[in-house]
């Protein structure tokens, strides 16, 4: 049987049990101790914490996310570190006022929808055996047939609790995508996943206009946020929604603008919502260019907004820069970088950016 060790999380003094084959972050999140994390795959450095006592296995930590010098000083990445004996860590436990964080749990379900919604993009809807609580913007880890897992953002809204919708882009030679979701997975199949994860979630209490900025399948968590705003608008007991929401969807080719009509219909029906498709590599029926460039044109001054950016790391970084140039401060910008195994291996766009909030 796999051995279990005690993890003590300071400064809380909380003690919890963690298996030798389980990451310390996973044990914490399942026990309601909310350590900061983003990629959960040793790539971004968000979960870095100090190991005060006890031996650990450092796991598959990217050398770009955890430098040798940091390791020598006692730091480790909690999302890939596993205990070898009882361990004491000093964690930056996050508690945000007005936000309920839900412990991570395992879920099983059945594939209900698996549609090609754009070239090399699939909508996967899993009907869950038990409902999941999460905040709009968070993600799940989808378990692969080989026992590994991959993070995918949830596009459905928290009030649609018994299903999760994912938007998955095919990666050439990708184990999860080219090797399974696009080749073998079928409607009716049983799947398992865990969640909810991540600190990229909607803060409805901030009461400001929203900029929702996504590229490719980076649109997924923004759709969850948009649906949540629509639910707030329709909530008869609440004060409704009074702020402008502008959503950009950046794609290379026009046929990548999935669900375009759905967004346009929402925009036509509501004066607070604007949908701005952005096509970068061909002439199109609409505006041509990358999201950061179009954003800079439209918002020479972006102060007063709250921005949520999601997609490939290069787009996220460039969009972050465009927003800061337009005088939006980092405290008003939330980002989700879709890091993959290549980013973990080569460190591209990872961690050292002063613009990444850690
Ligand atoms: C928080 C988060 C949320 C995400 N949400 C979404 C989402 O909603 N939708 C979505 O489409 N994607 C999302 N992603 C990306 C997703 O998790 C996967 O990384 C992506 O689907 C690729 O998985 P794969 O198994 O197909 O590819 P992998 O097999 O993991 O390979 C990915 C790439 O890395 C290369 N590679 C593999 N191993 C190495 C190595 N050792 N050295 C160098 N290169 C290597 C491969 O050739 C390939 O190009 C998200 C990522 C994160 C971190
Ligand atoms: S969450 Fe651990 S490195 Fe990204």
Automatic annotation (TrEMBL):
<dbReference type="InterPro" id="IPR001041">
    <property type="entry name" value="2Fe-2S_ferredoxin-type"/>
</dbReference>
<dbReference type="InterPro" id="IPR001709">
    <property type="entry name" value="Flavoprot_Pyr_Nucl_cyt_Rdtase"/>
</dbReference>
<keyword id="KW-0479">Metal-binding</keyword>
<keyword id="KW-0408">Iron</keyword>
<dbReference type="InterPro" id="IPR012675">
    <property type="entry name" value="Beta-grasp_dom_sf"/>
</dbReference>
<dbReference type="Pfam" id="PF00111">
    <property type="entry name" value="Fer2"/>
</dbReference>
<dbReference type="InterPro" id="IPR006058">
    <property type="entry name" value="2Fe2S_fd_BS"/>
</dbReference>
<dbReference type="InterPro" id="IPR036010">
    <property type="entry name" value="2Fe-2S_ferredoxin-like_sf"/>
</dbReference>
<dbReference type="InterPro" id="IPR050415">
    <property type="entry name" value="MRET"/>
</dbReference>
<dbReference type="GO" id="GO:0016491">
    <property type="term" value="F:oxidoreductase activity"/>
</dbReference>
<dbReference type="Pfam" id="PF00970">
    <property type="entry name" value="FAD_binding_6"/>
</dbReference>
<protein>
    <submittedName>
        <fullName>Oxidoreductase</fullName>
    </submittedName>
</protein>
<keyword id="KW-0001">2Fe-2S</keyword>
<feature type="domain" description="FAD-binding FR-type">
    <location>
        <begin position="104"/>
        <end position="203"/>
    </location>
</feature>
<feature type="domain" description="2Fe-2S ferredoxin-type">
    <location>
        <begin position="5"/>
        <end position="95"/>
    </location>
</feature>
<dbReference type="InterPro" id="IPR008333">
    <property type="entry name" value="Cbr1-like_FAD-bd_dom"/>
</dbReference>
<dbReference type="InterPro" id="IPR017938">
    <property type="entry name" value="Riboflavin_synthase-like_b-brl"/>
</dbReference>
<keyword id="KW-0411">Iron-sulfur</keyword>
<dbReference type="Pfam" id="PF00175">
    <property type="entry name" value="NAD_binding_1"/>
</dbReference>
<dbReference type="InterPro" id="IPR017927">
    <property type="entry name" value="FAD-bd_FR_type"/>
</dbReference>
<dbReference type="InterPro" id="IPR039261">
    <property type="entry name" value="FNR_nucleotide-bd"/>
</dbReference>
<dbReference type="GO" id="GO:0051537">
    <property type="term" value="F:2 iron, 2 sulfur cluster binding"/>
</dbReference>
<dbReference type="InterPro" id="IPR001433">
    <property type="entry name" value="OxRdtase_FAD/NAD-bd"/>
</dbReference>
């Amino acid at each position: 049987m796999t051995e279990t060790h005690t993890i003590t999380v300071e400064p809380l003094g909380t003690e919890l049990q963690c298996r030798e084959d389980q990451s310390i972050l996973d044990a914490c999140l399942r026990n309601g101790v909310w350590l900061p994390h983003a990629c959960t795959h040793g790539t971004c450095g968000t979960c870095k914490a100090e190991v005060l006592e006890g031996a650990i296995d450092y796991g598959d930590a990217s050398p770009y996310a955890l430098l040798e010098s940091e390791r020598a000083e006692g730091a480790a990445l909690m999302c890939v570190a596993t205990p070898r004996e009882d361990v004491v860590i000093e964690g930056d436990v996050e508690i945000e006022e007005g936000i309920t964080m839900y412990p991570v749990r395992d879920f099983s379900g059945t594939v209900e929808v698996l549609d090609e919604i754009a070239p090399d993009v699939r909508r996967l809807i899993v009907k869950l055996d038990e409902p999941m609580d999460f905040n709009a913007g968070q993600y799940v880890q989808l378990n692969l047939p080989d026992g590994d897992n991959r993070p995918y953002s949830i596009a459905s809204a928290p009030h649609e609790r018994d299903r999760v919708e994912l938007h998955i882009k095919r990666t050439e030679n990708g184990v999860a995508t080219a090797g399974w979701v696009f080749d073998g997975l079928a409607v009716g199949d049983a799947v398992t996943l865990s969640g909810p994860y991540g600190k990229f979630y909607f803060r409805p209490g901030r009461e400001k206009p929203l900029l929702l900025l996504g590229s490719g399948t980076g649109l997924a968590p923004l759709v969850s946020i948009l649906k949540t705003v629509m639910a707030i608008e329709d909530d008869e007991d609440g004060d409704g929604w009074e702020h402008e929401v502008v959503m950009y969807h950046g794609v290379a080719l026009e046929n990548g603008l999935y669900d375009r009509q759905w967004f346009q219909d929402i925009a036509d029906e509501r004066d607070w919502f604007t949908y701005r498709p952005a096509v970068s590599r061909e002439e199109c029926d609409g505006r041509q260019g990358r999201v950061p460039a179009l954003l800079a044109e439209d918002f020479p001054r972006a102060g007063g907004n709250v921005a949520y950016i999601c997609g490939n790391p290069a787009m996220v970084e460039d969009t972050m820069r465009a927003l800061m140039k337009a005088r939006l401060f980092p405290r008003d910008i939330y980002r989700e970088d879709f890091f993959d195994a290549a980013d973990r291996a080569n460190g591209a766009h990872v961690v050292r950016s002063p613009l990444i909030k850690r």
